[in-house]
Amino acid sequence: xxxxxxxxxxxxxxxxxxxxxxxxxxxxxxxxxxxxxxxxxxxxxxxxxxxxxxxxxxxxxxxxxxxxxxxxxxxxxxxxxxxxxxxxxxxxxxxxxxxxxxxxxxxxxxxxxxxxxxxxxxxxxxxxxxxxxxxxxxxxxxxxxxxxxxxxxxxxxxxxxxxxxxxxxxxxxxxxxxxxxxxxxxxxxxxxxxxxxxxxxxxxxxxxxxxxxxxxxxxxxxxxxxxxxxxxxxxxxxxxxxxxxxxxxxxxxxxxxxxxxxxxxxxxxxxxxxxxxxx
Length: 279
Prior knowledge:
Blueprint lengths: L6 E5 L10 H10 L4 E4 L8 H11 L2 E12 L2 E8 L6 H27 L4 H9 L7 H10 L6 H9 L14 H10 L3 E4 L9 H13 L4 E6 L4 H13 L3 E5 L31
Helix pairs in contact: 1-2, 3-4, 4-5, 5-6
């Protein structure tokens, strides 16, 4: 089995809300000692072709992935699709719908910004000029560049965070549908960062139970800056619901120090690794 610190199954590029191109991401991961990496951009697989070419040049094993937004009991949930077939016609069609949902949401948020006196139309144009799917991270960066806030965190705190004046939720597909999309593309569904959702411990158990019953394969036991107690809690939940474990930095930007590529805690020994039967 590949040593755990050499595996990173959750990263982002500029094709969603990451700061690096796929080739830059691969190069940085290589320098960090990663030799098995999944690119899992939000609701798009458009960066996989470039990532695959870069990984081939550097001798890295690229896992084709995606992070798909879903709804579970009105809560937005993120599901990683790992080892997917990027040529899956059904998956591509469904991700195109996800992009349309994101663009519609972005238009609504910029309209709201316009109604409170900010240049919503100009901000929307700035976001739409960028490659990849539009995200709140892009809009936060546009607000900073236009001088309306000092930092992206300020943008979320004042305008874009849940419950703030410009926030709009998206009509994501049901969790079961997303699991089915991933499985139909030959992939394995992993529930991303389960401790990050604002739900009670009981609701979290019900979420994971529904995910497992619906065909989910794994729980992201080690995620980014998870505290050690969160790793243990996730390990217990994975074992309880007979799910494999996944590990991922959720890397977005080298300027963010809390989730560097490949520098991850070990998957607890009692948890079956998602990649274990692929060695």
